[in-house]
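Our preliminary data section would be incomplete without showing what the modeling component actually yields. Below, a chain of 59 amino acids is followed by its predicted structure, encoded as tokens that our downstream tools consume directly.
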Amino acid sequence: VTRLTRLPSSLVDLSEPLQVVRYEQGGHYHAHHDSGPVYPETACTHTRLAANTTSPFQT
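Predicted structure:
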């Protein structure tokens, strides 16, 4: 991860493990512990489903 991102190893060592996921068509990531009322800037996205028409990727 350090070589790929060029982030300092001290930062990478203190971070959560990297996860790479490929979703099937229609799949999405559900909200998790740090999205909700405690962190209002990170919306619980699975409760506000809407098409992202500005995304360059197929949604």
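The first helix runs from residue 2 to 5. Helices lie at 2-5, 9-13. Preliminary results of this kind motivate Aim 1 of the renewal.
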